[in-house]
Input
Amino acid sequence: MCAPEFFTVGYAINPWMDPGTTVDVELAVKQWTRLRETLVDLGHTVHVMQAQPGLPDMVFAANGAFSVEGVVYGARFRHPQRSAEADHHKAFYAEQKSWRFVAPTEVNEGEGDFAYLPGRLGGLVLAGHGFRTDLRAHAEVQVVLGRAVLSLQLTDPRFYHLDVALAALDDHTITYYPGAFAEPTRQILRNAFPDAVVADEEDALAFGLNLISDGKHAVLNSEATGLAAKLRAAGYEPVPVELSELKKGGGSVRCCIAELRG
Output
């Protein structure tokens, strides 16, 4: 994770961002801190990257890389406003000394457009494209990680990253909003995941799908009450958190967390 101490909305690179929006940085840090504390309280270890002035979106740490079993596929951002973030993420993994970092040649935005299901096909990468990550990066990540990749086409600009339209709940199961995807992708998802928890538009727009789950607890935006009820009915324990300030930048829970799969 990376604290939002320099968070602001000074440009617009997704439909949620309005450069005229006032950001309460103190509240953003308070909400982010509560998210970090929630993860620690659930038994997880959280590493914190140093925030950098001039890079307000570094708080959305998920976009900086994608790791599977100690191999890290680095990010190459679509927009120049975020491109400098990639080197800071690379440096973070280098400092850990237990990760093999692979620099990308194709445009991709890390876990923003990649999700992982270790229980499917010996490890299945769900990969989004349509707005940020180039389709060619799907082939590249397949080679780098040695895992099967299922490409999913996003067509609604409000859901510009996969992680605002779909989330892994455990090693086999996902939750997603069908309306974010092209019809052929919807059919693929229906066939491949008949047991998925299907979200409606209201909870998708509340960033409910921008969640992180450890297989038991699903930490999600507190506004997504309908999805929380569906998750509870499916056997997961919803853990709501409020991230109203960070939503102004087009992100929520999942965007703030880069999962380290050792």
In short: Helices lie at 25-41, 85-96, 136-145, 183-192, 201-205, 225-233, 244-247. The radius of gyration is 17 Å. The chain is about 25% helix and 20% strand. The mean pLDDT is 98.
